[in-house]
Design goal:
Helices cover about 35% and strands about 20% of the residues. It is of the alpha+beta class and about 525 residues long. The chain folds into three domains: about 170 residues, FAD/NAD(P)-binding domain (3-Layer(bba) Sandwich); about 160 residues, D-Amino Acid Oxidase, Chain A, domain 2 (2-Layer Sandwich), CATH 3.30.9.10; about 100 residues, Helicase, Ruva Protein, domain 3, CATH 1.10.8.870. It starts with a helix and ends in a 5-residue tail after the last helix. The protein binds flavin-adenine dinucleotide (FAD). The site of flavin-adenine dinucleotide has 39 residues, from helix 2, strand 8 and strand 16.
Amino acid sequence: MKREELIEKISDKSKIWDMVVIGGGATGLGIALDAALRGYSVALFELDDFAKSTSSRSTKLVHGGVRYLQKGDVALVREALTERGRLRNNAPHLVKDQSFVIPNYTHLDNFIYTCGLTLYDILSWGGLSLGRSLFIPKRKTSRCLPTITKKGLKGGVIYHDGQFDDSRLAINLAQSCAENGGCPVNHMKVTGILHDENGKVAGVKVIDNESGKEYSVKAKSTVNATGCFVDDIIKMDVPSSAKMVKPSQGVHLVFDKSFLNSDYALMIPKTSDGRVLFAVPWHNKVVVGTTDIVRDEPELEPVALEEEIEFILQTAGLYMVRKPERKDILSVFAGQRPLAAPKKEGKSTKEISRSHKIFVSDNNLITITGGKWTTYRRMAEDTVDKAINLSLIEPKKCTTKNFKIHGYKPNPDLKNHLYVYGSDMKLIEDIIKTNPEMAKKIHPEYNYTHAEVVLAVRHEMARNVEDVLARRVRLLFIDAKAAKVSAKSVAETIAGELGYDSNWIENQTKTFEALSDQYIIN
Ligand SMILES: Cc1cc2nc3c(=O)[nH]c(=O)nc-3n(C[C@H](O)[C@H](O)[C@H](O)COP(=O)(O)OP(=O)(O)OC[C@H]3O[C@@H](n4cnc5c(N)ncnc54)[C@H](O)[C@@H]3O)c2cc1C
């Protein structure tokens, strides 16, 4: 996947693409891959990096959503459990089985959650289950979750879901798309919508953020998959359009794994604000979250609010013997859910449906919003089908159900931190063989090497320090201070690959250091 080659393809002014997709998060990349695999010509434009926005800031769960079962949304849960199983089969190098424990402090909760999770299992019929749910007595609950409060504990329930690396999956989707003839380009902003003589949408205007060059890209169908930013694009088509999306912010705190000290994840089914709180082992740390706060406007780099940080610390502290404090936070990250705005005023975000919605403007701009990472494949299928139903493109069948995503490798060795590269692991070994210097670690306390930086630039379209340290190697998300001190050496390695000078290195280092301060709590 080489950016220069992809830009070359979109420079062809005479070309009319079957589909143009705006937005390179889970939704847009899924759509572009689906379209490429059906044999359509498809280009995708992402204004920053792939998964820059919400798609790198999830709770890292590939799940049916136990919470939606509590609300009786059985169809949504069944759909997500089906997609969970498919994703586990199609990207086993990135999606692993994760056992969760719900600790119960009343006998009634033991009964309710054992029954509820049995239903959750039943809904994953058809060979897509990840394991049976089970009631466990008090002593076993304490053994599974050694750091939780024992006072009043009455037992627990074990259940299974998937856990993944969100931004790495996004990169692999982009690679799969490019390998199948698609043209996904990052750091390329859509600045306008093209209309034909009948006023119908006919493509997009884009600007390359690196070169400043502008392009007009013509297409038979245009899809707006910009998450929380869909309204900006809708207004480029019809300026008077009403808002469709409300951003709702969710924050996660990352701690040392000793706070959980277990391979089991902790799930608190009902916090004081009626939400679910997870503490999930991830890349040798534990990710705790999340919150749900409505924001007025979407942000590309949202910042955690004090009240969100305090809420997570306090709620986790109620269940953990060693109460996490501010000084223990290794990284804090915030993401914004692209929730379909409620028609009725005053509805809370918890009540707004999490299912995806597809809208078509009078001019045939297709907008998709809502949904979740787990269901990205199904969302993509529905969106491409919509373009077919509108007769914008000729009918072709979806082929993604069993498609093996780039890097596919079953039974990865989870002890080797390179397992996330799947079948690409060999490329890293080759880089080190050619230049043993690249075996040097990025940071003394972590196993990430400069060979991974080289791989990110050569094969994964990383263009700057943030692309590498936030979304290829996840150091910014697991230890923001360590990421900050690694910025300069990573910038030097990238500059060596892309031919940049010392000014670029200095600017990049400063820019990344300022960004990482937002992930550090003092
Ligand atoms: C806190 C939180 C936790 C979550 N946890 C989970 C979970 O554990 N499991 C799960 O399945 N789901 C989870 N989700 C949901 C999931 O993360 C989202 O549904 C999904 O990432 C949304 O992807 P998207 O592509 O629609 O949006 P985004 O990831 O936001 O992508 C949209 C992209 O469009 C780009 N863009 C915007 N404007 C333009 C433009 N003018 N030109 C070009 N590009 C543009 C943006 O830069 C952005 O990258 C969570 C969400 C949140 C907020």
